[in-house]
Amino acid sequence: MTESAAAWLAAGSSFLVSLLLSLYLTPIFRDAARRFGIVDRPDGKLKTQEEAIPYLGGLAVYGALLFPVAVFLHFSDRVMGLLLASSIVVLLGLIDDIGRLPPRIKILVQGIAVFLLLKSGIRVRIEAFPPLACIALTFLWMIVMTNGFNLIDVMDGLASGVAAVSSVFLAAVFALQGNGMGLILCLSLFGALLGFLRYNRPPAQIYLGDTGSLLLGFLLGGLAIEGDYTVKNPYGWLTAVAIFAVPLFEIAFVSWLRARRGASILVGSRDHFSLRLRRWRLSRAQTVAWSCAAAALAAALGIVGMRLPPVPSLYAYGSIVLLFLAVAGWLKTIDMGL
User: 314 partner at 20 to 30 Å CA-CA among 66, 108, 177, 235?
Assistant: First the structure.
């Protein structure tokens, strides 16, 4: 068997094992969360579900990801650093799900996790930037990504669905580059999310909780840094932005709206794009489907841009920006009664 065939076999096996484990583990964690009262209770404001929904879905995803990765992946400093840092983020999210933590503590712990990534050799590398600027950009990217997925996790299946789409397209990037580590991790995550979506799609039986949403943002953010996007195009790094266009759009859109009102980005409100789509006319399932479609379109255009010469690629990247600017302008017109 060739090395390439062995890598694909390992990636495919990891996906399948993650999928089966997720289908098995998710109802176990659902029932455990109910038993111990780790649930999201409706409050009539942001939390409008009819009954309390269990958390701990993030632990099911993490467990379904971790076991096959341990079997099929060769460990290195970068792999161990990514998994250790992700474990810290999982612990942070679990504590926050059980008893709320102040935002400053959450950011501090996330910063410690990013430091571990840097220590293991995972950091943004842009030749035109000095090393200190790349380190600062690594911190910025990881904090934004981690909290971007946390921010969109306000609707059944939304964060997990968008993350599943992003993991598939990031896997495509790694496949094009022959990066076996990234391919196995992305396909393992995809399998874990597909199994979890069986119970998280509308109407959800279990939520990711901060345990899961913070993990998704951090893990995918760290994996994205490992991609080599500029082999054919110096602007190819924009592909990483395109693959995560939906959570990045959410954090920019919500920050803009709250800043216009003089409200804090750290205080919850109904500014989220998904809640505006619901207020307009879409059901939960339709909102999730359209959000995943937008994520897939942006990611596909990003990968096309990465493969194009520099100047034509700017048209692909620019079309993504124009699309989301148009959507932002339209969403702003929807009256949320704020």
Answer: 177
